[in-house]
Amino acid sequence: MLLKSKTSPAWVEAVLADFDAFLLDHAACERKASATAMTLVAHYPDRVELVRRCIALAREELEHFERVWDTLTRRGLVLGPDKRSPYVNRLAKEYREGSDAYFLDRLLVAGIVEARGCERFGLVAAALPPGPLQDFYREIARSEIRHHELFLDLAREYFPPEVIQARLEELLTVEARVVADLPPRAAMYG
Length: 190
Fold this sequence. Notes:
Blueprint: H1 9-17, H2 19-43, H3 48-74, H4 86-92, H5 99-127, H6 132-158, H7 161-181
């Protein structure tokens, strides 16, 4: 999937200026990603391929959460309450009514979020000095590629390619506007 915009260098500057805030937000994002995968399992228990793949995804995201949490504790940081993501909330407003349309939109938005995560984790890795933290963010960026592909594969499992492509183009256009509208801050999705 090709995103229709690139993350601004100002976002990377904001992250590096308050890396502790970014780590706290990253931990929350990983926990929410695990919960989202399990929510899909709960909402679509009859979709065998989705259940199988989302269980594995939930485990991997929870492992990422644990690794970020370990980094937080080594830095003396404590998790705070979750905050709503303006980015994710804005994309969720695009979900259409109707069971099939809603299902497709959830899969495609999840894939878009993972694609943006891949881009941003790669930017963070490139900006960090060599060492374990940089290695971790490179690894996370690679996993986001797999996650993004997982959601597109699931969409292909249940919908025709032309339906997917048309809706994906619409959602990618919205996502580019959302990214452009959000001010840079030390959070995964601005």
